[in-house]
């Protein structure tokens, strides 16, 4: 048994086997709610979605992509050119800076394409492990679990993980769920976190997982 597996809450494997069918019943077609037409748009939308809602990102990206349809076009932009187009999204100044730098790197190192390579995406400005997992799983079918605030919170409430570090939560979930369900799992957990198991006042009484969920940390 690995050290990480040894730290998993008691009964986590049994609960994981209950969580998956429950999520399949609720969200059979779970997928990202970010709007995109190609890997570049998905990468940009994912960078913009950090600490912001998908709704706010989807409201901004049509105009952004009309003005800057690909990495080559965006690589010529200065952050100040991008700011007015994304100013309704949280942390827009930092994100504009990252997008301009990211587009330049895509052109310089990857011919303007989003690389199908985890380490290369992680190395892009404004990207990180979560962004790489979202982009590679949705754009290229890479098996990945992107741990955002919803996935982390639900993993702890359902006692699938005791970890607060997203990378460690991801490692726990990878040991509990079949690899071919990882992409579905993170999308379904995100939807459940938005619709039922919200950070404040989760709707436990109406939740299909109420019978087996230990509700760790829920008051
Ligand atoms: S029972 Fe409550 S804490 Fe558990 S997953 Fe459902 S809403 Fe979240």
* Number of extended strands: 0
What structural class results from the helix and strand content?
Answer: mainly alpha
> Largest sheet, described in full?
none
Strand content: under 5%
Radius of gyration: 18 Å
Query: What gross morphology would you assign?
Result: elongated
Query: What is the CATH first-level class name of the largest domain?
Result: Mainly Alpha
CATH superfamily of the largest domain: Hypothetical protein, domain 2
State the order of secondary-structure elements, H for helix, E for strand.
HHHHHHHHHHHH
CATH architecture of the largest domain: Orthogonal Bundle
Number of domains: 2
Low-confidence stretches: none
What is the helix content?
55-70%
Give average pLDDT, whole number: 95
Bound molecules: iron/sulfur cluster
Protein name: Endonuclease III
Organism: Deinococcus arboris
Pfam families: EndIII_4Fe-2S, HhH-GPD
Family: Belongs to the Nth/MutY family.
Description of the molecule:
This is Endonuclease III. The protein is an all-alpha fold and 219 residues long. It is built from twelve helices and no strands. The relative contact order is 0.15. The protein has two domains: 3-31 and 145-206, Endonuclease Iii, domain 2; 39-140, Orthogonal Bundle (Endonuclease III, domain 1), CATH 1.10.340.30. It is elongated and about 55 Å long. The mean pLDDT is 95. The structure holds iron/sulfur cluster.
